[in-house]
TrEMBL record:
<keyword id="KW-0472">Membrane</keyword>
<comment type="pathway">
    <text>Energy metabolism; oxidative phosphorylation.</text>
</comment>
<feature type="transmembrane region" description="Helical">
    <location>
        <begin position="34"/>
        <end position="54"/>
    </location>
</feature>
<keyword id="KW-0812">Transmembrane</keyword>
<dbReference type="GO" id="GO:0006123">
    <property type="term" value="P:mitochondrial electron transport, cytochrome c to oxygen"/>
</dbReference>
<protein>
    <recommendedName>
        <fullName>Cytochrome c oxidase subunit 7B, mitochondrial</fullName>
    </recommendedName>
</protein>
<dbReference type="Pfam" id="PF05392">
    <property type="entry name" value="COX7B"/>
</dbReference>
<keyword id="KW-0496">Mitochondrion</keyword>
<keyword id="KW-0999">Mitochondrion inner membrane</keyword>
<keyword id="KW-1133">Transmembrane helix</keyword>
<keyword id="KW-0809">Transit peptide</keyword>
<dbReference type="InterPro" id="IPR023272">
    <property type="entry name" value="Cyt_c_oxidase_suVIIB_dom_sf"/>
</dbReference>
<dbReference type="InterPro" id="IPR008433">
    <property type="entry name" value="Cyt_c_oxidase_suVIIB"/>
</dbReference>
<dbReference type="GO" id="GO:0005743">
    <property type="term" value="C:mitochondrial inner membrane"/>
</dbReference>
<comment type="similarity">
    <text>Belongs to the cytochrome c oxidase VIIb family.</text>
</comment>
Length: 79
């Protein structure tokens, strides 16, 4: 992290950022190797969490007021 901050503060920031990028620790094949699995894992995690929230927490969502909201009867003005 220190190397990145040092490169960011460098006057020639473009060259400093390239130096940090070239010394990166992960291989360039990381996304090709693990990207699909991570995407499916993240998707499954999100579906599981939302499935739990929607079915087990007891939250009343009240998605649409159509048919539930009724107007009050009109009151005539009494003199």
């Amino acid at each position: 992290m220190f190397r990145f901050v040092k490169a960011a503060l460098n006057v020639s920031a473009g060259q400093g950022a390239r130096q940090v990028r070239l010394s990166s620790t992960h291989s360039p094949e990381f996304h090709a190797k693990y990207g699909t699995g991570l995407m499916f894992g993240g998707f499954a995690f999100c579906v599981a969490v939302w499935g739990y929230v929607l079915t087990q927490t007891g939250i009343t969502w009240n998605l649409s007021p159509v048919g539930k909201v009724q107007p009050k009867p009109w009151r005539e003005v009494e003199e």
